[in-house]
Specification:
single chain, alpha/beta, Rossmann fold, seven-stranded mixed β-sheet, 7 strands, globular
Length: 135
């Protein structure tokens, strides 16, 4: 578990993490509202050369970007009510086609059984932020 004192720490962790990526990973971001999932994603995609303004896809459900590692598919499952909703946003169609980043991945984590996923947990304990990366 890595303690996060400020945005500079988050940016540093995202930068180091970006160097480990090949381009077809599934990154599952898990944490409470306001824990840092979107901020981490912004810094990560910046490190991967994405020039677009990266925002949370909470309302659009999916945002696509082009990076130095190929396509990036950024999903937000917060408003998803069922696994069938994932079909409507073409989630299954992009698996293996680029880097997949899922905010609120814990809603349907079981559908990713059998896939090689990276879980990044964002926690706030007693006002202190932490990130834990599980490969």
């Amino acid at each position: 578990m890595i303690k996060i004192d400020n945005l500079k720490d988050t940016k540093k962790i995202a930068s180091e993490f970006s160097k480990t990526l090949k381009g077809n990973e599934i990154i599952c971001l898990i944490g409470d509202l306001g824990a840092g999932k979107t901020t981490f994603t912004k810094f990560l995609l910046e490190e991967l050369g994405v020039l677009d303004n990266v925002t949370s896809p909470t309302f659009v459900l999916r945002s696509d970007y082009e990076s130095l590692k190929g396509p990036v598919y950024h999903f937000d499952w917060y408003r998803m009510d069922s696994k069938e909703d994932l079909v409507n946003i073409d989630f299954f169609d992009v698996l293996g086609e680029g880097l997949v980043i899922i905010e609120w991945a814990d809603k349907f984590l079981d559908i990713l059984n059998g896939f090689n996923i990276i879980k990044i947990n964002f926690m706030i304990k007693n006002g202190v932020r932490y990130i834990n990366i599980e490969r």
